[in-house]
Amino acid sequence: MTADVSVPNDTPADPADIPVDALPSRGPLWKRLPVVRQLRTSVGLQRGMLVTGVVITAIFLVTAIFAPLIAPYGGSQLRSGSVAFGAQKAPSAAHLLGTTVGGYDVLSRVVWGTRTALLVMIAAVVLSIFLGIFLGLVSGYFGGWIDRVLVVVADAIYAFPSLLLAIVAAIVISKGQSSMWGGILAAAISITVVFVPQYFRVVRSEVVRVKAEAFVEAAKVIGTPPARIMVRHVLRNSVRTLPLIVTLNCSEAILTLAGLGFLGFGIEPSAAAEWGYDLNKALSDVTSGIWWTSVFPGVAIVLTVLGVTLVGESLNDLADPRLRTRRAAGRRGARAAVQSEVDVVEVDPLDAPPVADEDTSTGRTGSHDETTGGAR
Amino acid sequence: MSTTDVATAEPAADPAPAAGASRHRGGGLGRYLLVRFLLIFPTVLILVTVVFVLMRSTGDPITAALGGRLGPEQLKERIHAAGYDKPILVQYWHYVSGIAHGDFGTTITDHRPVTQVLTTFGSATLELAVYALVVAFLIGIPLGRIAAARRDKGPDAVLRVSAILAYATPVFFAGMVLKLVFAVWLNVLPVAGRATTRSILTMKTQGAGTGVYLIDAISTGDPAVVGDVLQHAVLPAVALGLLTAGVFLRLVRTNVIGTLQTGYVEAARSRGVSERRLLRTHAWRPALVPIITVIGLQVAMLLGGAVLTETTFEWKGLGFQLVQYLLARDFVAVQGMVALLAVIVAVTNFVVDVIAALVDPRIRY
Amino acid sequence: MSAQEPVIDVRDLKVTFATDAGDVAAVRGVSLHVDPGQVLAIVGESGSGKTVTARSILGLLPETALASGAVVLRRNDDAASSDVLSLSPSRLREVRGRDAAMVFQEPSTALNPVFPVGWQIAEGLRAHRRLTRAEAHREAVDVLRRVGIPDPEERAKHYPHQFSGGQKQRIVIAQALVLNPGLVIADEPTTALDVTVQAEILDLLRRLPEEFGTAIVLITHNMGVVADLADQVAVMYHGRIVEQADVRTLFSAPQHPYTRALLDAVPRVGGPRLRPARTAPVGETALTAAPSTGAPVVEARSLTITYPGRFRRPGFTAVDGVDLSIHAGEVLGLVGESGSGKTTIGRAIAGLTPVTGGELTVLGTQVRGIHERDFRAVRRRIGFVFQDPATSFNPLLTIAACVAEPLLVHGVAKDLDAARPRVDELLEAVQLPKAYGDRFPHELSGGQRQRASLARALALDPELLIADEPTSALDVSVQARVLDLFARLQEELGFACLFISHDLAVVDLLADRIAVLHHGKLVEQGTGAQVLGAPQDPYTQRLLASLPVPDPVEQAERREAWRALVTR
After folding, report:
1. What predicted TM-score, i.e. pTM, was given to this entire model?
2. What is the least distance, in Å, from the CA of C234 to any CA of chain A?
3. ipTM of the assembly?
4. What pLDDT, in 10s, does the model give residues B97-123?
5. CA C524, C529, C532, C533: dihedral to nearest 10 degrees?
6. Considering CB atoms only, which of A8, A237, A352 is closest to C396?
7. Could you read off the pLDDT of C25-38 as tens digits, one per residue?
8. The domain C8-114+159-264 is classified under which CATH number: 3.90.1170.50, 3.30.420.10, 3.40.50.300, 1.10.3880.10?
9. At a CB cut-off of 8 Å and minimum separation 6, what does B98 contact?
10. Closest by alpha carbon to C512, among C364, C326, C345?
11. Do B263 and C104 touch (CB under 8 A)?
């Protein structure tokens, strides 16, 4: 201990203080992918939720991809050979989950529905993410009156019931025609109208936060051109929370699609299988006690949204140091940690400054940042 | 370099007490509320414009609603009479100035002023929304506090998963399952509608005529009617309320966990204040400000949910009616109703800001 | 129980935390005790475990912590004592606030923003005693008066944001005192405060043992504060107490090498300088132009900077008619408390904040109203070192990429590979191993990052370096090394420098001339000897007198001088 007293404490900062996503690290690529990394660092309930979410989502994806192999019939098939399925047949060996009022096989509709949901989900997120990021970045970085106008517009749209907006957009876009791809695109674009303001708000607030950080100022002082600052310094640091928003928006997309379908503004049954539409048609069945036409597509929606949301929620918790669970100090580990003087990691979590809210941030505090730890 | 980016950068670099003082200088609450109030107008204008542009991009409303039923000549006549052959900007101006005077247009299919549609069906939606909010508050907020207090323990795990489940279940599916169980299998509650025909007749003849059935029913003085109205309300209120309760639960939990970790709660704990009181008072009040703000946004979501709930339960409110007009391609009606909803949303957000200001002394002073 | 028994007796305390990197021992066998009315200072740098030790006394450790040993706390009425670590939650609650209370570092986070301060004080009372609302309020007002809040009846109804930082800390102290505990634990009670406010809070704390009979455990990293307040001192290092002595012995004859290193690292006003003083012009008045040959590198004439107000409110004038100049090869120290406008001046010179009035010439270019495109050529001749090393590097780029950025932007090097030899050279110059270039910023310590920051600032061989509080986020021993490096590089490279700091002692180590700012106005300017040796302006005098020096004997005298100054 006496040997190194002249350089006390000059060891790297505690990585635990920084959100997991913030830290670039080394190791195989797959270990650094968003969900994989969280799987490795999470504990307890949070890990359970994440794992459950990942498993459900994986089942959903597999079903969507291999729908032709899994589904006994086609999504819009009404007869096998020349024999019609018949309407509202209770579950049986031929139709494991029964048939609908329109004479479709419920199981096949549910399985093919995963495809529709997945395609809409991907199309909606891809469409909205680029537009939202672009607008958010430009608006947040340059500020000025364009920024103010965009913020008011985004806030106004954000505050409005998203489903109503999606309905209006769906009518405009589809104009009554609804082939499979046309219907999927129409639904995706309607959902995009709702999502762009959300991405815009998130990216913009991140950009505004990052822009005020010292490293952006440092780039400005050097004389870095604005385009380079935006791409190299601001953008990459502003999209850290995106995996999280993407997952939450995926679930939102499925719910909106189902809502559109339920109200009759979605995709025609002959074009593609869609759960919301099936639920709409099942509405009158419920009154007469026919349960299989509604329960199965409904459960499919619930499970899909549940899976994706569980992943999103877990990512959210793990990214937010306030919500993240840490392992409790092990009763055995207490002594083990002190065994080697060299390897011991020094942390004084309480010497770190308290999480300051925006109007209490202090310019200078003495023992600010030198929380030590992470011996390398 | 723009001026705004300096204003955001400086306080972090050199936290001037004077800058802090400037925040409290000037009009304070009055000015804050005035700005918030004025914000209603651009919000409404933007939404109205978005809807106008979307709707008009499909063509004129007359053709959309009546095309195929009328001959080309008749259509042309109707279009001319309604002014839909004028330049789009003129039409836009007429529309916006009409709204400014409280004229939201007249429906094409049944020739009713949109404002009259609102007064006829608005009360039903209001009633449903209030029931759902009551359910959501009663369930979501206490459970959210429990989840925050028992964070990462068993109750929290159960509550969180329930909240996510509530979010993941589309309100119409929840409604259908509730119907199936309570109305069909157990047969203890009515399947759909707001009241039996008999009750509606009684209320029409003896009730107060407010359109809010619970008030009307009470004013008839007939307990059977009141019971009937309440029975009809249970399932829609629970379906829509549970969805909202899930959102409230997560909202309360996250914010209370946040304030439970602040320095001032730790400071109160260091002085021996009990955990129960820390949760109920010290952590609760500061958490309330963001909670109230988000609850304001939830009112909009509730209106979206009401459209689905009303369709599921044939609850003849604004949402139910809106879907009917949509299916009939009556875009004047749709446009008018959406504009009205925009006003409601904007005003709600203003009211929420006022409440938040009353809770938060940093805004109040 | 006799009065001689210690208020707090900590025996072999060990605390372990669970982190992502495994279990970590924060406190490794600490024993200490405090007698009634005594002040024990626990000194150490961040990560030494001093705060964890203090929090253990009230059982305020997070759930991830595991503590062993004994923390025996005496009741405030001397009736009994109890081991805090083994108390049940409800008994622990009774002990907190009654037997020992805590004063926190950051008064603005220790007060609940949505409740009146009087109510918050009453909460502590009502947690322990059955009192009516009115009785509790009366006691709260009483204690507010005793800690020096003027007009306490009225002020008790106010909310925290309506008080200044110093007043907030008084309220936090009042909260701690209201139950008359035998022990107050003060965790860095003045770290977040300006020097002049710190002096007032220290004065208040010093009265506690006499007026309230309270013992104090003082947690601090500031040796000046220790010298001012403490009776006993315990020096902590890596979770252990390496030395414990009474304050005079510790400062005059430190035993442990760490204590000696720590004391040596503390800068003192009028102490040995890191740079030889330049041939200072003799006899010139403070405000007239300066000595050296050629045009000054920076020249400000009645420089005014106003931030626009929002919603048409009046703007805020951060800098108000400042005249100053920096000559080639000269280090100008700019001193002031928070809100004095010192950072704003630095930012204006670097072109980060627009100048709204007066004139500012930087390297021969008039900055006021200049277009960014025209200023770019000037930028490559300016280097800037930011206050917080944690945030001044892009977390996603390696250190080498960050340091190479100026070279790439100004076309000196084509790509990172071409820039690498120069980057390595720069890293070597700031005493970082070349291999550190491949690390990410979070893999470096604060001191290392600040040295890398210096390397980046020097990449283009600037004629002017602006250093904005470059060491205020660092521990004192780390600070000493960074300052030392800074002085050597300035000597070697001969750049002119604007050195901004709140710390008079740090500025005194480096600066040729010192300028003192107060509320945006320049109140005094001159050589170190002039400004710090014989200050003319009353504000400078008060600033200087408020600064506690790391010497208990000298500080006792200075305290009297300070009292005389503030009561005058």
Report:
1. 0.80
2. 17
3. 0.82
4. 888 887 878 888 888 888 888 888 888
5. -120
6. A237
7. 889 999 999 998 89
8. 3.40.50.300
9. B104, B105
10. C326
11. yes
